[in-house]
UniProtKB/TrEMBL annotation:
InterPro entries: GHMP_kinase_C_dom (IPR013750), GHMP_kinase_C_sf (IPR036554), GHMP_kinase_N_dom (IPR006204), IspE (IPR004424), Ribosomal_Su5_D2-typ_SF (IPR020568), Ribsml_uS5_D2-typ_fold_subgr (IPR014721). Belongs to the GHMP kinase family. IspE subfamily. It catalyses: 4-CDP-2-C-methyl-D-erythritol + ATP = 4-CDP-2-C-methyl-D-erythritol 2-phosphate + ADP + H(+). This is 4-diphosphocytidyl-2-C-methyl-D-erythritol kinase. Pfam families: GHMP_kinases_C, GHMP_kinases_N. The active site is at K10, D132. GO terms for biological process: isopentenyl diphosphate biosynthetic process, methylerythritol 4-phosphate pathway; terpenoid biosynthetic process. Gene3D superfamilies: 3.30.230.10, GHMP kinase, C-terminal domain (3.30.70.890). Residues 66-134 form the GHMP kinase N-terminal domain. The keyword Transcription regulation does not apply. Its EC number is 2.7.1.148.
Amino acid sequence: MEITLSCPVKLNLTLRVLSRRPDGYHELYSLFWKKYSDERLTISQNCDEIMGDSLDVSGTEIDGENLVTKALAAARRSFGGIPALKMKLDKIFPAGSGIGAGSGNAAALLSWLADNYALSLSAGEIGKLGADVSFLAQKYEMAEARGIGEILEPVGAAPPLCWLLAFPSWSSNTKEAYSALDEMRGRDYAPMTPMEAANEARNCVKTLAGGGRSGLLPNDFYPLLAERHGEYKTAEKIAEESGAAGWGLCGSGSAFFALYADIEAAERAGSERFAREKWIIKTHYLE
């Protein structure tokens, strides 16, 4: 038996970094939004048990250990009935883009194991793989994320909008992004409260769901990256002029997203405007 899974990715429709904790991590509020992508994970049972598990990756190169491998190791520590697996991962998204593609690969595997082998990892165990994995392994489409991203609460249906993702020629390192944000803010910075962040996000969703335009969506990392890369201002201008309902930064960067009423509008904006920018190495669309 062989099965091919579509791997999920996410947007942070809003992302507010609220405070730094004594352990060095940051409290945040974010509104996560999931769609299934064209990255594919193909799984079959490895008939040669002696060979054990195998993972073949094609497409975009991955630096370091793949999260699929880490997820499978975590699953085996929790449940001993999983057979040796032969896996093939087709990667299309650049690393360091902020859409959680690697986390989505791991989430696809964990969801399949839960459905087929009754795997039941705790939220804490999944969270050790990454906060994005915790969300992407769930069934719901949108969720409010609190804590360091591990506290999730579903919020219902997402706005009926399509995504355009524009990937720049640079990547973003999450740890470095948080350090730069701390340095920019200084010790006396007073972040918004969790309630303020939640109300802000809900207002954004209400506007988009009602057919309105939110414009630039709130993300505390965006001013930092926009200062380093003026090209983001060009992306904003393109999104506004091409009729996007909202736009912004994916996670802590580096990809830029724009939201459109239908896939035709997204593809038209991509081919006629975004793809012509030399700093954009790839555009992608999700319904």
